[in-house]
């Protein structure tokens, strides 16, 4: 079963590489075979040399002239074919590599949810693909090298058999080296898998220690030495499997060389004895001597071919795995329906639960809620309570592992996720810092109006971000980000205001999510912003917009129609602010605890 699976995987990998090469540039792919033709012609060199030596020994000048002419012609034609094939190959590698890079980007960005980005196995596969960036394009190069090598192996063995059948014993002596190929390939695959996770950790630690974002904390808290220690340990764990692989490869290589040269020496001694006795011709002995080095290379070539085929199959296999995994994820998200234009009733969550991939404890469990159309709902709770996970489930970024989420009686699983998200709006705590012009950075919150200056200014007003506009030199045309010519940098609070304004671009969304929207803002701006939210929520009541506010600051939720209190992934309380305060439960305790800090 394992062999059949390996053959099927190899067959898929070969079809992938060949079909991609032919698709991107058919004639270029055909010209790549010129190199193989040059390799085949090069195999005839020992034969022509043997003819020349035999002619010299027999004083046959005509044979010597023909052998020399054929030798020179072979060199000229062979080099021309190799030059033609190599030039075609270089161009094809660039085209095929670009095609695969573009396809990977398309695959990873086309998945409508982000569950897979929390899956350690998925992330490990992506890490290996990052480490071998460009290897898919080079897989075509490997395929062509293998084709050239195989042509060389067949030609050398055929010439050896014509020189003397006993030379096949020398070829057989290379079999242990060939058999070592699959073993070395398995070792390499295990080494790559073992180094993937520590490689991700090393890359993360390196980024933490060298990026400006973490520079202040690293220096203030004296984290440089601990980070270096952990980075060294992670790098050691990353490279240890590779070093062990190199040691084992060296031992195997020495062993197979000892076997080969022992057999080759014995066969050559046998041939020399027969040549002295006149049983072997000078031409045959000369050809045999010239082929020893090439026969030694046969086992190495075959082993390299097996090794390269395995590596090529793994590399292409990872791409094919990504194709299959993307197809599997998208097939599981089979919704094709359209969301309602205006919600009549609202969102209903029925015993919703979610468990992140690779985790034993659910992030959410048995969450049942009714979020009425036109209502303002506040989600509160301590860090890790599950608020952002719930928001991601409602927005369709994650799919519930248990339970259902529906709107007006229709399960969200049956609605096209792209169509659903096109009817959402909002701002998130982990917002993107989009280094476009200020106007474009806000305007892309509604792509259809990304250049509508009036709509952008309205969103800036509703997002309490007009102060950002007046603080930059060129208004909406100001380039953001100091890494760009004439670009300006913004504070964390200013970036967050723009993210909030971006979330205000869409008018009359079905759901407006505000996930910790004021985390980086001062108290005055927070007050101004929530005034804007109140006005937006009031207009949302008329259009059916469900406003979901996620916050740690309990003072901002008093105006909400409904307060939902989460604790360790469960809903522990829900009701109005006044009801929950009077109830004297978990919400009241948290509210009182936070209120003390302002007294």
Question: How would you describe what is shown here?
Answer:
The protein is of the alpha/beta class and 599 residues long. The protein has three domains: 2-330, ABC transporter transmembrane region fold (Up-down Bundle), CATH 1.20.1560.10; 346-423 and 509-596, 3-Layer(aba) Sandwich (Rossmann fold), CATH 3.40.50.300; 434-501, no CATH class. It is 64% helix and 10% strand. The chain has 21 helices and ten strands. A six-stranded mixed sheet has the order 6-7-8-3-9-10, with helices on both faces. A four-stranded antiparallel sheet has the order 2-1-4-5, with helices on one face. Strand 9 (562-567) and strand 10 form a beta hairpin. Helix 16 (453-462) crosses helix 18 (492-503). The N and C termini lie far apart (72 Å). Residues 147-311 form the ABC transmembrane type-1 domain. GO terms for molecular function: ABC-type oligopeptide transporter activity; ATP binding; ATP hydrolysis activity. The chain crosses the membrane at residues 24-44, 64-85, 138-161, 167-185, 250-270, 276-293.
